[in-house]
Amino acid sequence: MSQSLAAARTTAGAAAELILAGDLDRPARLTVPDLLGWAQHRAEVAFECATSGIQRHRFTGPLVHDVLMDAGPAFDPARRKDRLRFLIAVRGADGHRALLSWAEIDPDFGRAPVLLAVTLDGTPLDRAGPQLVLPQDRCGARYISGIEAIQVDGGYSAWS
Length: 160
Fold this sequence. Notes:
The chain is of the alpha+beta class and 160 residues long. Helix content is 16%, strand content 35%. A five-stranded mixed β-sheet has the order 2-1-11-5-6.
């Protein structure tokens, strides 16, 4: 981390932390500055909000898929379909939750460009924490702000 970024974090207060947990080889604790280490993608979105109508925003950040792949999801890479049993649970600091399937974000399947946004309309989200952005969603209900945890779960193996 650069000295100027470290100084900005100290003067602006602590950066929010995101916990990556679950069926991962390398669980992690990440901040928005950490998320700048991945390739950044841009999404200009419009979605419907139940309380305030149509929202239009510009987000930047890494793809959820890229960040989770670096954490080492515990599926068998030699068995393409093994990924299909994995779920991704996202929780915001306000208790808002959303669930994604691995297939939804995987380039071999749904290829949805789901972001862990680090900026919102050009404003850094360092103190608020990253935001889940699903450009393909018409409704904004899965746009989770202030993400504090992402849990990857591939543990359910049988239907009864």
